[in-house]
Amino acid sequence: MTESPTKQTKCIDVPKELGNIVKIHADRLGLVNKQLQITKDENRIQIPLLRDPKEQEWLHLKILSSDLQLGTCSFQERKKSSTSLDAVLKDQLPANSMNLIPRSLDVIGDIAIVEVEPELEKYKAVIGESILKVHPNIKTVLAKTGAVTGTYRLRQVENIAGEQRTDTTHKEYGCQFNVDIAKAYFSPRLSTEHKRVSSLIQENETALDLFAGVGPFSILIAKNHPDARVYAIDLNPYAVELLKQNIRLNRVENRVFPIVGDAKQIVKQQLGGTANRVIMNLPERAAEFIDVACEAIKREGGLIHFYGFLKCPPDSLESAKQKFADAVLKSGRQLAEFSSSKTIRETAPFEWQFVLDAKIF
Question: How far apart (Å, rounded) are the C-alpha atoms in residues 199 and 195?
Answer without folding.
Answer: 6
